[in-house]
Records
---
Amino acid sequence: MEFGKVDKTTLGTIDFSLPENGRSAQELLTGKRDPDPKVYVGAAKWGRKEWLGLIYPAKTRDANFLAEYVNHFNGIELNATFYKIHTEAGTKKWAASAKDKDFKFCPKFPKSISHSGDLSAPKIQALTTDFLTGLTGFGPKLGPVFLQLSEQFGPQRKEQLLAYLQQLPKDVRFFLEVRHPHWFSQIETRKWLFSALHDAGIGAVITDTAGRRDAVHMEITTPETMIRFVGNGLHPTDYKRVDEWAIRINQWLDKGLKEVHFYVHQPDETFTPEMVKYVVEKFNIVCGLELEVPHFVPATGSLFG
């Protein structure tokens, strides 16, 4: 992910500490811990050849990558849907790969919708219908669907955005990720955004990336959250950040948060399984969970070594 990317030499100068809970989180999280909170952790793609011999058996065919992925992770931030609209038959086939598991697909809106300009255009409405129809194949494996707006989509278009969000179906969970700095820096705009999301039943994506600390807004507008964690190649700060997230998420669970989606990005995806393994182990310890830990292919050495 390029959003918020910085030169690695500057990481030691960045304050990665998590901000206090946002206003909407303070207002929403006033309950008690759910006896069975749902926490999903994963990556953004399953088709990673870098994982052959790492977590996928060395000779795994491309067609079997998803079947291997679901053995290690219980959710995915599905970037495949960002590039094209998939059919119901296609998503049904994907869902079948996880049929016996508590697994969630969290598709991203196609860029033909999110990055096209006018969300009120008839063409966008038609594309949205096609996109959502295709998602029905996921059935109960469908998690939150998220709309990522570009850095150029600013608050001057907030009424257009709200109208679009309000017409989305109510039987699907949606999240929104905004990137234009004014959504966060303009106090009244920030209040409007997260209040509007709460009223519409739309979740707010939290993006934790080095160069855009404003996007770590710590607002929660529904009883669930989605966190996009952008690491820096297993830099020591990656682990410290995960430690702090584990503490914060446990606090949120204690106050009634019902579901968490935590998806890891790394500049080199070779490192993603190791980072997810650390996330899961830390969440299990701090949050009292029993998530399955990704397992690695055993190293093979020479008998005459």
---
Amino acid sequence: MRVVVVGATGALGGELLAALDETRLAIDSLVPIATERSIGTDVEFQGASMPVETTLDAVRGAQLAFLCAPASASLEATRVCLHAKVPAIDCSGALALSPEVPLVAELHAPGTPPLDAPLLALAPGASLAAARVLGPIARTFGLSRVVATLLESASAAGRMGVHALSEETIALLSQQDAPDPPALGHPVAFDVVPWIGEIDEAGASAAERSFAAIVGRALGGVPIAVTALRMPVFCGEGVSLAIETVQPVEVSAALELLAKQDGIELGSAVPTTRAAAGSEAVHVGRVRRDPTRESGLLLWIAADGVRLTAAHAVRVAEARFARV
């Protein structure tokens, strides 16, 4: 199998390559693709150094493409893949709201779409973590309402976000001026930023609109209200959830249900975003009743959104080619 990774030098692409190192897919050759800024760059795969291609022409002839670049670049790669008849899995979220592209938020859940479509979209990062936890609850007890507080790390903005936080932190601790203008459009070190992305006329940020729409699609239209915050940490995502179920549910029943799900970990300790770093699982804790709602539950999710998305993409690819 010839596999292409578009956006191979980014944070998500790097995690995908690491996940592919352990895959059951029979990969004969791997082609990493990035922008011209990566000319002369190599990436590591299965103990070998692979030169990075800088043109999408390298997609042609592949049996599978993973799209890990930012949205605009992933959309351009999508057009090339369709023209070249190369199946593609979009890990960027660029296609997650396209109704004609199947969305794979959970792999083995009832209602999972067929995996042999030319394009498959994944729910990325925190939206994937939330959908993995809320999906079983929605199918078993029904969901009438979700209120989420999303806490994203610098890594959710890619390597640019990690570099921005690092440079600002070093500058401030050294009593120097932080980079101006800030790489993310606003300072991030030692601060909590109550928006991520452009804010629309209704006051919703881009991250909030995306999270609500993608998770809502994955759950079949459940209404979702979300506030997204940028946290001054290097990796990991946290989501605080207040949910209202159609059928009353005890905390013990919710815990029993979640404990049976693949890719979800319930621990005796409350999971932190730092503890979730490097994990392919979604960590759940602080599950308790909402005292303001008769059928309400409160819970906390911690996940490494980049690693989670990469691992999910590889599992989807393995399942797809197992059916061919």
